[in-house]
Amino acid sequence: AAFAVLRAPGALAGLGVSVLWTTGGFSFYTYIALFLSRTVGIGPEGIGAVFVAIGVAAALGTAAGGWATDRFGADRVARGFALLLVAVLGGLSLAAQALPGGLALPTVVGLAALWGFAGWGFGPAQAVRLIRLAPERAPMTLSLNASAIYLGIAAGSLFGGVAIAWFGVSAVGWVGAACQLVGVLLLAHGRRRGGGAVARVGEPAAA
Fold it and tell me: What's the predicted TM-score (pTM) here?
């Protein structure tokens, strides 16, 4: 059954998007405590507060992503959140490296929360994109998507660690943004290749 799903047009590219989405996010999130302490001087209590803010934003993002997918279509929402993630992750490194401390701290905290919103907002749209590739095999498709996410978590931890070793902890956002940008390009490629050939679960007619 897994091979049947993988043979569906666009399935490998779709799962590749999931890998890149998670790789980009976890190249930052794995090292977030180190990033916050080293770049803007946030202590343990402050880091805990940032985690709370990210959690709240992630819950809101999941709800907003589901609603927006129903309203505007999975492709539009996935592209929108993916582009936002490129900007947010790149902005985290840019703020840490270029802004003075008084501006960097609130900017980094705000962007970290926005990352939680956009990162989890992407999920519902991506799930719908994958399900519609083989609607009759949705459970297997979502299982493969979970595997892609776990692969992305491992890859993100690796890439983030390499970035820290080579360029310092402030660079992890750039690595995440680069992964998300490749994911955006893969989304665009899949959209051109897929066209209207697949029944569009969760996609309004105007999308």
Answer: 0.87
Tell me the average pLDDT across 133-159.
90
- Residue 92 near residue 42 (C-beta atoms within 8 A): no
CB-CB contact of 187 with 126 (8 Å): no
Asked if pLDDT for residue 80 goes beyond 90, the answer is yes
Query: Contact, 20 vs 180, CB < 8 A?
Result: yes
Phi-psi region of 41 (alpha: psi -120 to 50; beta: other; left: phi over 0): left
Whether residue 31 is predicted with pLDDT greater than 70 in this model: the reply is yes
- Confidence label for 205 from pLDDT (cuts 50, 70 and 90): very low
Phi, psi angle pair for 24, to nearest 5°: -60, -45
Q: Name the burial class of residue 199, with classes exposed (0-12), middle (13-18) and buried (19+) by CB atoms within 10 angstroms of its CB.
A: exposed
Measure the CA–CA gap between 16 and 21, rounded to whole angstroms: 9
What the block records as the tokens of 55 is 């959690």
To the nearest 5 percent, what fractions of the chain are helix, strand and coil? 85, 0, 15
How far, in Å, CA of 31 to CA of 156, rounded?
Answer: 10
**Superfamily (CATH H level) for 19-194:** MFS general substrate transporter like domains (1.20.1250.20)
